[in-house]
Amino acid sequence: MNLLLLLSLLLLPPISPTQISVSPKTLSKSGDPVTIQWSGVDDPSSLDWVGLYSPPNSSHDHFIGYLFLSNSSTWQSGSGSITIPLINLRSNYQFRIFRWTASEIDPKRHDHDHNSLPGTKHPLAESEEIGFESGRGPEQVHLALTGQEGEMRVMFVTHDGRESFVRYGPGPNRMDQVAGTRVGRYEREDMCDSPANHSVGWRDPGFIHDGVMTNLKKGKRYYYKVGSDSGGWSITYNFVSHDGDSSETVAFLFGDMGTATPFSTFIRTQDESISTIKWISRDMQALGDKPALVSHIGDISYARGYSWIWDNFFNQIEPVASQVPYHVCIGNHEYDWPLQPWKPDWSYSIYGTDGGGECGVPYSLRFNMPGNSSEPTATRAPATRNLYYSFDMGSVHFLYISTETNFLQGSSQYNFIKQDLESVDRKKTPFVVVQGHRPMYTTSNEIRDAPIRERMLEHLEPLFVKSKVTLALWGHVHRYERFCPLNNFTCGALGFHGEDWEAFPVHVVIGMAGQDWQPIWEPRANHPTDPIFPQPVRSMYRGGEFGYTRLFATKEKLTFSYVGNHDGEVHDTFEILASGQVLNGNRGGDGAMAKGKEGSTISWYVKGASVLMLGAFIGYVLGFISRARREAGLGKTWTPVKSEET
Ligand SMILES: *[C@@H]1O[C@H](CO)[C@@H](O)[C@H](O)[C@H]1NC(C)=O
Ligand SMILES: *[C@@H]1O[C@H](CO)[C@@H](O)[C@H](O)[C@H]1NC(C)=O
Ligand SMILES: *[C@@H]1O[C@H](CO)[C@@H](O)[C@H](O)[C@H]1NC(C)=O
Ligand SMILES: *[C@@H]1O[C@H](CO)[C@@H](O)[C@H](O)[C@H]1NC(C)=O
Ligand SMILES: *[C@@H]1O[C@H](CO)[C@@H](O)[C@H](O)[C@H]1NC(C)=O
Q1: Could you read off the pLDDT of 538-556 as tens digits, one per residue?
Q2: Nearest CA, atom 2, ligand 1
Q3: Contact at 8 Å (CB) between 568 and 612?
Q4: How far apart are CA 485 and CA 69, in angstroms?
Q5: Which residue in 300, 368, 397, 535 has a CA-CA distance of 20 to 30 Å to 638?
Q6: Is residue 80 part of a domain?
Q7: Ligand 2 pocket residues where CB is under 6 Å
Q8: Cα distances (angstroms) measured from residue 494 to each of 487, 579, 600
Q9: What residue ranges line ligand 4, CB within 6 angstroms?
Q10: Domain containing 46 — which CATH number?
Q11: Which residues pair with 420 in a beta bridge?
Q12: Which H or E element spans position 36?
C-alpha cells in the first residue's frame, strides 16, 4: 500500500453504511402518518437520533423536532422504523440521522425540561424529501362569533394566499351560499426577538384567511367547506348557529392548554392537551343540536417563538374549533417581551421574555375576536388585537379582558370594562362572566405576579363587585381552584341562614388544561390530606388534576363544573342563581364529595356522552390511556408536577 493511498484513506470520511427511507413520499393532509425506516447503523447507541427538517434545506441545528432511534424496539440491531403523524408546514420535510455521544452533551443547550438538545456533529444519513399533495384545500379551520346576530366567522390557512371562499348552507349538498375571505399574514421582521425572529424558530406561517358567514337562521345546523376550485376544498364541516332567542348557554372553558407534538422539540409541549380536546369532543357529541362555545383564556399554543407549534396547535384543535366558536384572550406566552409598550415601574419583576419574541403578532392575526380593541406594538409589527371584547350568549354576558396590557383606571381598557359592565341588560343576561389570563386570586405560590394582583384588586375588583359580576375566570396557574363569593379577600354571606346573601363574584382559576409546571400542593408525610400551601377559608376547592370546566346556564341558574382529564368525570360543581346566590358551593376537599351534584341539570348530556364513549370513542380512548396519568385515575388526589416556571 503506498503512502498516498494510505493518506487518502485517512482523510476521506468513512462511507456511512446507514440508509434511511421514508414512506409514503406524498401525504394528503395534516395528521397523516409517515414511516421513517433505517438500517446499517453501526454499533448503535441509545443517543442516535433522527431530526425532522422543514424546509429541507434547514441547517443541521435548525430541526423542527427529533426522536431517538431507540424509540424503535429493534434499534439495537442497527435498523428500525418509527411512524409519526406529520403536520403540513407548507414546505417539504427531510429526515436526518445523527450519532451523538455522551461526551458531546452540552449542558448549556437544553430544552425547558433540562433535556440536552442533541448534537449534530456526526450526520449518518439524509432521507429524500417528502411533501404534501397540492390541491387538497386549506387547513387549520376555526370558528368565532363576530358579535353580530346571524353570523359566524371562519378562519383558515393556505400556503399561497390565493382567493378563497367559504361555501355554506343548511345541508351537505346544499352549500349554496358563498362568502369571500380577507387574507393576512405576518413576516419574520414583525417578530420582536429570538427565537421568533431567528432561523431556529421562524418558519413561513402561510396565509391566514378570514371570512364571515352571514344571514344564518337561529339555532340551525349549517354545513360548510373552505377553499377554491383552483386550490382545492377542505372537507365539509358543520356547526349549530347561535340562537339569540334562546336563554340557554353551554360553554367549555379553560386556560393554558398548549399542544402535543409527536416528537421532542426545543420547548416543552403539553401532552395533556390531547385529553382535554378528547373529553370536550365527547361532550360536544352529546350536546346534539345545541350551540356551544369554547373559551381558552390565554397561553394558547405555547409556541413561544417556535412557529410550527402554532401549526400543530391549530391542527389539534380543529375537530372542536371547526364545530364551535373558539374564543381566546391573551396570555403572557403570546405577548410578554422586554420592550413591550406597557411596562410600568412596578411591573419589572413580572414581564420578561415569556412570548419568545412573538410580541402578540401570531395571536393577533391568527384569531379575530369581536370588537376592535388594539394597542400599538411600538415596532413595525401590526397592532396587538383581540385584547378585550364582550358578547351575549343565551343567558350569559361574556366579557374577555387582557391582563397583559394596561387595565388601570384611565386606560382605554378600563373604560371599556366599566362601560361594558354598566350596560349589561340583566333581564336578558342575568349572568356576567369575566375572563382574563393572570388571576386576581390564587393560593398558589405566585410571588412574581403579586404586584399585578394588587393592581387588579385595586382597579378592577371594585368594578366587578359593583356590577355584581357572577363569575371571574382566570388562567396562568395550572390548577383548578374555586373561591367563595369574594370581595377584598372576604367571603360574602351565602344567605343559608336567613341572612341576606352578598352576590360577590365567584373567582375560579382554570389554567389546568395542559401545561404542567406548577409548584405542588403536596401532602406532607404526617398530613397526607393537607396541602403544603395552607388552604385559606376563601379557597373552597383546589384540584391537582388536569382538565377543563363546563358552564351550563338557563335564565334561572348557572351550573359550573370541573371535569378531570384522568377520568372524564366531574370533580367539583356549584350553582349560582340569577339572584346571585351561590348554592351548594360548599368547601370540597376532594372530588368525590362533589361528584353527582351536576346531575340535576345536565345529567342528560353527561349520560348521553357515556353511551357515546362506548361506541365511537373507545378505540381512541384505549389508545390514549397508555399515555394518560393513569396513577391519577387510581384515586391519588395529588399529581406531582415539574418545577416552577418563572
Ligand atoms: C432554503 O431555500 C429557500 C428558498 O429556496 C431560501 O429562501 C432559504 O434561504 C434557504 N434556507 C437555507 C437555510 O439555506
Ligand atoms: C419515544 O420515546 C420517548 C421516551 O420513552 C417517549 O416519551 C415518546 O413518546 C416516544 N415517541 C414515540 C413516537 O414513540
Ligand atoms: C431579532 O430581534 C432582536 C431584538 O429586536 C434583534 O436584536 C435581532 O437582531 C433580531 N434577529 C434577527 C435574526 O433578525
Ligand atoms: C371600533 O373603534 C372605534 C374607534 O376606534 C369605535 O368608535 C367603535 O365603536 C369600535 N367598534 C367596536 C365594534 O367596538
Ligand atoms: C381591603 O381590606 C384591607 C384589610 O382588611 C383594608 O385595609 C382595605 O382598605 C380594603 N380595601 C378596600 C378597597 O376596601
Answers
A1: 999 988 889 999 999 999 9
A2: 57
A3: no
A4: 54
A5: 300
A6: yes
A7: 67, 71, 82, 84, 262
A8: 13, 12, 21
A9: 371-372
A10: 2.60.40.1930
A11: none
A12: strand 33-39
Q: Whose CA is nearest to atom 13 of ligand 3?
A: 198
- Residue 103, C-beta contacts closer than 8 angstroms, at least 6 positions apart: none
Indicate whether 176 belongs to any domain.
no
| CA 57 to centroid of ligand 1, rounded, Å | 6
Q: How many domains does the chain have?
A: 2
Give the C-alpha separation, 632 to 628, whole Å. Answer: 9
pTM (2 d.p.): 0.89
The cell numbers describing 407, all together, are 387595565
Atom of ligand 3 nearest to the CA of 379: 5
Distance of CA 488 from the midpoint of ligand 5 (Å): 6
pLDDT digits (tens, 9 = 90+) for 163-179: 999 999 999 999 999 99
Domain end residue (candidates: 80, 98, 132): 132
**Range of 45's domain?**
15-132
Sequence-separated (6 or more) residues with CB below 8 Å from residue 168: 175, 177, 178, 179, 213, 222, 223, 224, 225
Question: C-alpha grid cell for residue 25?
Answer: 413520499
- The three cell numbers of residue 82 are 418509527
- 370's grid cell: 369581536
Ligand nearest to the CA of 94: 1
* Mutual angle of helices 599-614 and 272-287, in 10-degree steps: 110
Identify any residues that bridge with 223 across adjacent strands, giving them in sequence order: 169, 238
Query: pLDDT tens digits for 97-141?
Result: 999 999 999 888 888 778 899 999 999 999 999 999 999 999 999
Q: What is the CATH number of the domain that holds 290?
A: 3.60.21.10
Residue 204 alpha carbon to ligand 1 centre in Å: 11
String of DSSP letters for 217-277: PTT-EEEEEEEETTTEE---EEEEPP-TT---EEEEEES------SSB-SS---THHHHHH
Q: Which three cell numbers stand for residue 562?
A: 370541573
Q: In the listed set 132, 165, 193, which residue is the last one of a domain according to the structure?
A: 132
Residue 8 lies in a domain: no
If asked whether residues 128 and 253 sit together in one domain, one would say no
Residue 161 falls inside a structural domain: no
